[in-house]
Amino acid sequence: MPDEMELDFQSALRVAGIAIPEDRYAIMLEAYRSYRAMAAVLDEPTPYEDEPAAALHPARSPSR
Amino acid sequence: MSAPIPSLAEASAAIAAGTLSPVALTEQALARIAALEPRLNAFITLTADRARAAAAAAEAEIREGRRRGPLHGIPYALKDIYDVAGIRTTAHSRLLLDNVAQADSDATERLEAAGMVLLGKLATHEFARGGVNDDLPFPRAKNPWNPACFAGGSSSGSGAAVASGMVALAMGSDTGGSIRIPAAFCGVVGLKPTYGRLSRRGVVPLSFGLDHTGPLTRTVEDCALAMQALAGFDPRDPGSADQPVEDYTARLREGVRDLRIGHARGYAVEAAVGAEQMAAMDAAAEVLARLGAEVVEVPLPALRRFEAACWTILHAESFAVHQQDLRTRPDLYGRTLRERLTLGAFVTGPHYVQAQRLRRRLTQEVDALFAGLDAILCAPAHGPAPLAAEADDNPWRRQQPITAAFNVTGHPALCLPAGFAANGMPLSLQVVGRSFEEAMVLRIGHAFEQATEWHTLRPPEAQA
């Protein structure tokens, strides 16, 4: 019976349209669990005003 | 066998003095490639005819008193993700076997304008992200210090070509350490400049927000010479920075007296860096202290924060680049790259944004350290190059590259030789600087290099 994280894994692959060969399923699931553990840092609270690094820096538009 | 070709500085001085001709230098490089290439696999595409024609043209120009600058008439090579008009860019992948570039990359334009002579395109990990031992259309580049060892990646051919004396300048790219790790494992110099310092136009992308281009050379002085030709604003690269270009050689020899240099020893301990690499870092700190720098231990932000930011951004952006091909023709990818790219399917929108917010915060925290420092020493790898057969080609690596911290913050980082492990493989020192202050990083690296002999030693595979 898949646990919740495995169901998430299957769902993400389905949404992305990616198929994984059967013989690589277990190792990819393990990779997914490892990534989720690493990304837990990103769930820590962030001040409202912290802007992302990739925020747009608009340049002046070309003149007519 | 043909001798290793001289450094950029040596070749430049000899050409200026009229004691070396670009044609002779190019023939020497081609002969050396012919002798070593069957064992090292550094090149994917050799452009011998083009090189001979360019060398002859350079020689004629110089003879007529029209020498363009210090790099005129000297050979170079490009990682095979840089475009050169009329030559295929494969990214070491079946997907791009017929991909003939329509225009030059910015780096190609600048090096050609400087009068350099293109020798060819170099091996890489597939799309600068794949594995070491996959079944790919070209063989993997081997480490000249021991062909059974990993050359480092992803700029593996660049590291091997420079270390073996085939070429004095090879261009690489660095999204998580792909210039610095091959430089460290092959015992050469590699610079990841500040994000935006060098253009990425005409270079196959991996992760737009983390991709850097930069040079690999035999010496720090050569790296400075290359940077002078390469640096500059490129309005056609959205990530290019419109910042003044420093003079990279003017203060190269000013030494480190009275500089304040941090040593991120705790970061290395946290990353479980091995004893030999730790000892090399400690010895490097002592050398710089003996030369007159004040060296103090400094705490970097926690490794897990850098890793979460880096790998979330990299997975998401590289997946965005490749999603269509992963869906429609996955079999054309090597197994390792296909699986590593697939990790991007697991990144949520909020996590990508959070990673970008964390990235800004980490950059600010490292910048705050620089308020009291001229540079930071940081281990570039966990240890020397492992055996290629033992390289970690899993989708999720047991250890992530510790170099990636400065892809996140964008600060310039230089790797240079700093010793040898018991197995005879090179160890390296990483010097990290303030953003857009590559000249200081190069100055510190040059002082260390001149006080040590590591850069003078040649790999057994490359001895004449």
TrEMBL record, chain A:
Write down what this protein is called.
Uncharacterized protein
TrEMBL record, chain B:
- Spell out the PROSITE patterns in the cross-references: AMIDASES (PS00571)
Q: One GO molecular function term?
A: catalytic activity
Amidase domain: residues covered = 25-442
Which organism is this protein's natural source?
Roseicella aerolata
- Name of the protein: Amidase
InterPro entries, alphabetized: Amidase, Amidase_CS, Amidase_dom, AS_sf
User: What Pfam families does UniProt report for this protein, alphabetically?
Assistant: Amidase
